[in-house]
Amino acid sequence: MGFREEQKLETSWKVHLAAELGLDPKKVAIWFQNRHARHNIKLLEEEFAKLKHAHDATILNKCHLENEVFARMPCYRITSSSILGF
Fold this sequence. Notes:
Elements: H1 11-21, H2 25-72, H3 80-84
Helix pairs in contact: 1-2
């Protein structure tokens, strides 16, 4: 049984595990809930890392494109004669 497949711990399975481990069924349920929460947090962290990587790659690509645009623009020099109109 994995946390991906099971959203809740079935009562019969909880009682079975508690008896096998010598624990109170409530402790088994709490352990399952905590483990499930940690699993979900891990999934969110992995998804965040993927999105951050994609975002960083997009920003880098944008910078490369901006540099390419500036490199292709004609260079205009501002000189004192152009300012004064000579």
